[in-house]
Amino acid sequence: MIYSLDKINEMAEGDQDFINSVVSVFLEEVPQDLEALEIAIKQKDFSNIYQLAHKIKPNVDLLGMEQTRATALEIETLGKSKATISEITEKFPLLKKDIHQVISELKKDFPVS
């Protein structure tokens, strides 16, 4: 398992509805943001690359995905500094793989009721 509910559990203080809500928002928003980020990278749209990586970062952080958060931060920084697109395209597959793996795990662990 590459995610952890420790931060969410701490915030939720036993409120399972809150936990379910956070997971639901993650499953709804992050795949869309990831897809938009991939498009922004293909279009070399540095402003959107920065904004989307910035938006993804706290969501993966909330799930204790430290490595994924670090990758999102790198992409965010590269987007902001308008680095070479090759550096961003090199890092994006790792972000995408980790997020897709977590989405798959979350769907198994939190079946839609």
UniProtKB/TrEMBL annotation:
GO terms for biological process: phosphorelay signal transduction system. Pfam families: Hpt (PF01627). It comes from the Bacteria. Residues 15-109 form the HPt domain. Keywords: Phosphoprotein. Gene3D superfamilies: HPT domain. The keyword NAD does not apply. The keyword Ligase does not apply. Transmembrane segments: none annotated. One of its GO terms (molecular function) is protein kinase activity. The modification Phosphohistidine is found at H54. This is Hpt domain-containing protein.
